[in-house]
Specification:
448 residues, alpha/beta, Rossmann fold, four-stranded mixed beta sheet, 14 helices, globular, LACT/PDAT_acylTrfase, O-acyltransferase activity
Length: 448
C-alpha cells in the first residue's frame, strides 16, 4: 500500500519470500479506548466524516456527530444525531483504523506522534516479515460501547476467523493494548471455545485489569483533556469529552474493582464548605469504593448539554453502572483456555493518578455539582501514568511471563524493550531496520 509522497522517504520497504511468510503465525492487534478511528456515516446517503481523531475542527464535529446517549433496552450507546451512525473503517485489513488516528497529509508530514498509535509496532512487525492481510491484521472498534456487547464480540470473532483462514489455518497471536485487554478477557469468558480454536498466544500491554482509579473516577466527574497548552484549541475540549464519557459503558467498566484487594483502597476526596446558621466550617470528606456512587450522583445531578436546540439531561447513569457490574462479573470469571499462552507487559516508573481530590482547605467546594468544573489534584502511585502497575499486573491468569517496563501508557506501543519482548515471544527478528523520523511531541494525556 503506497504511502503519501511526503512520508514515503521515511520508511523502508523490506521484501520477504513466501517461506518467510509461511513461517509466521498471524498477529492481530487490538486497540483500547480512544485507539480507533471513528467515522460518522449518514444512514441515508452513506457519506462518512472522520470524527475521531481529527486535529482541525475537532470539537465542532465531535459535538455534532459523536455525542451519545445510552439505551438501557439495547445496552448500546447511540448518537444523538439519529440520521447518522458511528462506524470504524475496515481498510488495510483493520490496520488503518488503529495506525495513525488522524491520517491527514498535515499530520503525516509533520509526524505528530500524538496521534501515531500502533504505527511503530506495525512497522516493526512488517520489518519482521509479517504481511498485511496474510499474517498481520488489526481490530479497531466503537470504543464507546461495552466491552462485552454483541457488536464488539462478533467483530473480534470475525477478525480472528479471517486471520486464521488467511494464514492457512495457523492459530493467531493477539497483541492488545489497554482496554483492548478487557475486551479480549470478555471474549474469552463468553466464547472460550472459539478463543481456544483460533488463538495460540495472547500478549497484553498496559491493561487495567482491576481498573484505573484516578483517571476513570476523574473522567466521569470532569472529563479528560487529551492535549494540553495551545494545541488544545485544535482538539476536543475536556468538557466535550466529559459529556461523552458520562454515557459510555466502557468507561464505567474501568472503574476500580471494588472486590480487588488493593494495597490501599482508592478514594475520591473533597474539601467541602458547610454552613450552619452563621457558622462556616471546612470539612475534608473521603468517599470510598461504595460511597463514591453517592458522590457521582450528587455531582452530576444537574449535568446537561444543549444539542440541536434541545436540553439533554446527562446525570450519572445508574443503568450503565448496573451493566458495568455485570461486565465485572464476566471479567472476574475469565480463565485462559488450555493451550493458549499468556504474556503481560505493564508500565512502571511514571506517577499515576490514584486518589482524586477536589477543592482545597483555602478554596473548598460548596455544592458538589461544582466538582464538574474543578481541576483535580491527585495522589500518585507507580504505573504508566494512566494505569497503576498494581492493577495492570493483577490479571489473575497463569502467565508465561509478566514484565514491567518503564514507559508511559501509550509510549509502550513504541518502546524498544517492548518490541524486543514481543519479538522474543513471537520467535521472530527484524530483517531490515526500519527508518524512523524524529518525532515532534506535545503534552498529551493517555487514554486507557
Amino acid at each position: 500500500m503506497l504511502r503519501d509522497y511526503c512520508c514515503c522517504c521515511c520508511y523502508g520497504a523490506p521484501s520477504f519470500d513466501s517461506a518467510d511468510i509461511a513461517d509466521r503465525d498471524p498477529v492481530l492487534l487490538v486497540s483500547g479506548i480512544g485507539g480507533s478511528i471513528l467515522h460518522s456515516k449518514r444512514k441515508k446517503f452513506g457519506f462518512q466524516t472522520r470524527v475521531w481523531v481529527r486535529i482541525l475542527l475537532a470539537d465542532l464535529e465531535f459535538k455534532k456527530k459523536i455525542w451519545s446517549i445510552y439505551n438501557p433496552e439495547t445496552g448500546y450507546t447511540e448518537s444523538l444525531d439519529d440520521s447518522t451512525e458511528i462506524v470504524v473503517p475496515q481498510d488495510d485489513y483493520g490496520l488503518y483504523a488503529i495506525d495513525i488516528l488522524d491520517p491527514s497529509i498535515f499530520v503525516k508530514c509533520l509526524h505528530l506522534s500524538d496521534v501515531y498509535h500502533f504505527h511503530d509496532m506495525i512497522d516493526m512487525l512488517v520489518g519482521c516479515g509479517y504481511k498485511k492481510g496474510t499474517t498481520l491484521f488489526g481490530y479497531g472498534y466503537d470504543f464507546r460501547q461495552s466491552n462485552r456487547i454483541g457488536q464488539l464480540m462478533d467483530g473480534l470473532k470475525e477478525r480472528l476467523e479471517t486471520a486464521y483462514k488467511a494464514s492457512g489455518g495457523r492459530k493467531v497471536n493477539i497483541i492488545s493494548h489497554s482496554m483492548g485487554g478487557l475486551l479480549v478477557s470478555c471474549f474469552i469468558s463468553l466464547y472460550g471455545d472459539i478463543f481456544a480454536k483460533y488463538v495460540n498466544k495472547w500478549i497484553t500491554i498496559a491493561t487495567p485489569f482491576q481498573g484505573a482509579p484516578g483517571c476513570i473516577n476523574d473522567s466521569i466527574l470532569t472529563g479528560m483533556q487529551f492535549v494540553e497548552g495551545f494545541e488544545s484549541y485544535f482538539f476536543v475540549s475536556r468538557w466535550s469529552m466529559h459529556q461523552l464519557l458520562v454515557e459510555c459503558p466502557s468507561v464505567y467498566e474501568m472503574l476500580p474493582n471494588p472486590n480487588f484487594n488493593w494495597k490501599k483502597q482508592p478514594e475520591i476526596q473533597v474539601w467541602r464548605k458547610h454552613s450552619k446558621e452563621e457558622e462556616v466550617s471546612v470539612v475534608f470528606e473521603s468517599y470510598g469504593r461504595y460511597e463514591c456512587v453517592t458522590l457521582f450522583e450528587e455531582a452530576l445531578k444537574n449535568n446537561e448539554l444543549n444539542y440541536d436546540g434541545k436540553t439533554v439531561a446527562l446525570p450519572f447513569n445508574f443503568s450503565i453502572l448496573k451493566w458495568a457490574a455485570g461486565t465485572r462479573e464476566v471479567l472476574d470469571k475469565t480463565q485462559i483456555p488450555e493451550g493458549v499462552s499468556f504474556y503481560n507487559i505493564y508500565g512502571t516508573s511514571f506517577n499515576t493518578p490514584f486518589d482524586v481530590c477536589y477543592g482545597s482547605e483555602s478554596s473548598p467546594i460548596d455544592e458538589l455539582s461544582e466538582i464538574c468544573h474543578t481541576t483535580p489534584e491527585y495522589s500518585y502511585v507507580d504505573g504508566d501514568g494512566t494505569v497503576p502497575s498494581e492493577s495492570a499486573k493483577a490479571d489473575n491468569f497463569d502467565a508465561v511471563e509478566r514484565v514491567g517496563v518503564s514507559g508511559s501508557h501509550r509510549g509502550l506501543l513504541k518502546d524498544e524493550k517492548v518490541f524486543q519482548l514481543i519479538k522474543n515471544w513471537l520467535g521472530v527478528s527484524e530483517k531490515t531496520k526500519t527508518k524512523v523520523r524524529r518525532s515532534k511531541t506535545s503534552k498529551v494525556m493517555d487514554a486507557c
